[in-house]
């Protein structure tokens, strides 16, 4: 074997060792990093255990689904001329239910991701939330490039690679060691 072949072999071996040492930490920090974004948002929606912060209804109603000025392409659920809702309407009840559901999902799914339990399910749920936010609430390239694309890519890595060895999934045998290609 020539010098180039030996250098190539050493380089490949170094890559294997670095992967073995760093991948568990990288996957853990990736899970933690993306989970923290959603968890912080979710915790802000609660005043205490099972006590939803009703002021967040206005966030969903007026910032997300009836912004002034109107965001082109965004899902607008209020009257576009008056930027008001009919109080007690089905739309208002649906938005309030969506706010509570988002508050629950943004707490439960990140906690699952951080501890590494049902990690792929949690990541898929957060991808769904990311896509909804991107397509219905902030449908601009600026929001997609930063931050939504970072959330989506981080979560896709977790779905593709799994949570890694530093997870309850691996401990319980719910996630096998990833296949090397």
Automatic annotation (TrEMBL):
Chain ranges passing through the membrane: 21-39, 90-114, 121-138, 150-168
Membrane protein topology class: Multi-pass membrane protein
UniProt KW Membrane keyword: yes
Pfam families the UniProt entry points to: DoxX
Keywords assigned: Cell membrane, Membrane, Transmembrane, Transmembrane helix
Subcellular localization: Cell membrane
Family under the similarity heading: Belongs to the DoxX family.
Protein name: DoxX family protein
Organism per entry: Amphritea pacifica
